[in-house]
Amino acid sequence: MESWEGKIVAITGASSGIGAKTAELVAQRGAKPLLMARSRGRLDAIAGRLGAAAETYELDVSSAESVETAFRLAYERHGRVDVLVNNAGFGIFEKFENTPLADFERMMDVNYMGVVRCTKAVLPRMLAAGSGHVVNVASIAGKIATAKSTGYSATKHAVLGLTNSLRQELAGTGVTVTTINPGPVDTPFFELADPSGSYVANVKRLMLTPDKVASAIVRAIERKRAEIDLPGIAGFGAKLFYLFPRTFERVSRKFLNLK
Ligand code: NJP
Predict the structure, then answer these.
(1) CB-based contact 8:82 (threshold 8 Å)
(2) For ligand 1, is residue 88 a contact (CB within 6 Å)?
(3) pLDDT 10s digits, 92-123
(4) In the prediction, which pLDDT does 257 show?
(5) What residues does each domain of the chain span?
(6) Which terminus of the chain is more exposed, N or C, with fewer CB under 10 A?
(7) How far apart are CA 133 and CA 116, in angstroms?
(8) First vs last Cα of the chain: how many Å apart?
(9) Distance set, CA 239 to CA 86, 95, 128, 242 (Å)
């Protein structure tokens, strides 16, 4: 991307963690972040710190109606969305047999269908303009599945499948699609994912900061990258898994099943 100045950047899940930090970084570069999430109070508090450029939109990505309303408003105000960061999401880490059907459905509805809904809200206009960028925050869990994440990991595999297919469909259109695949990140995500705190205690020293992930998102937009895995060692692990799946599973069962 030539310059951030004046770019309209819609960020879902911007009331917390990675999304809030991404909004801050793009505002610092001169873009206008549209902060989207369900919690109006938290959005306004974050936008208040970012200055006049930031705008807030109440958005529930699991509701087609809410997505339609938020993006209609954004287009009425600005006529365009240059970048969409599909970041809204949550996880519940529990064994398959202990996870109610409703939790599987909710995770898929937010983490995967939320990406579908929001992307549909911007893609036709990006295609008409011949430019635009959709960044999907997936996860290393979308490449390497570990125990207690049958529901969550499946949603992120789905996001990766969607993005990889869409990238091929969009080749030559001027619209870029990217996946960002972080390992564990130190955000409020774990208040729901790991209420006992035992997983966080196991991985605390390996955790990424939201700043690190948001910086990777910004870099991916500037350089039109297809995909970023972070930390790099996790991306290397994913490559080993694809090459030697059974061996990798055997070895990693000991080290990666920390939930
Ligand atoms: O989590 P958190 P992160 N509609 O809890 C929003 C992925 N990831 O920043 O609606 C709209 O601080 C929620 O806002 P609110 C992860 O899967 C994380 O870590 O106001 N928004 C909040 O702003 C997710 O996709 C880790 O409650 C909805 C935001 O989502 C992304 O990173 C590792 C919503 C969540 O902020 C950001 O997560 C990894 C809805 N229905 C991938 N439901 C990690 N933290 O370790 C939730 O690999 N939100």
Answers:
(1) yes
(2) yes
(3) 999 999 999 999 999 999 999 999 999 999 99
(4) 73
(5) 8-256
(6) N
(7) 14
(8) 39
(9) 24, 26, 36, 5
